[in-house]
Design brief:
mainly alpha, 0% strand
Length: 120
Amino acid sequence: MALNYILLGKRIKDSRCKRKLSQASLAEMIDKSPTYVSYLESGIKCPSLDTLVQIANVLQVSADCLLAESLNSPLEVDSSEFDEVFDDCNPYERRVIIETARALKAAMREYHFLSKRQKP
């Protein structure tokens, strides 16, 4: 599977925005130009491995979180993704999300069980 530069750039941008950093701030922290960061976020350029690790460290996310769509097992979830979801939630919102996730999990398992039973 080829690396999807556009989705990588989108994840970098989303993570940068969640940290309330400007492109210029991120660029300074990784010793690159703001134009370079703009090119990364738009998918025009792809960072070197060293730069990707620097970006992940500055943004406090895992590299696999940034590369999620390009990995062979993109369904694996890093705990930092849950942290990102809950980060700005109040206790009520957290409770609703958890209860919704539990109901969704039960429905998915029930559907999977039923679809396996219906096969000849």
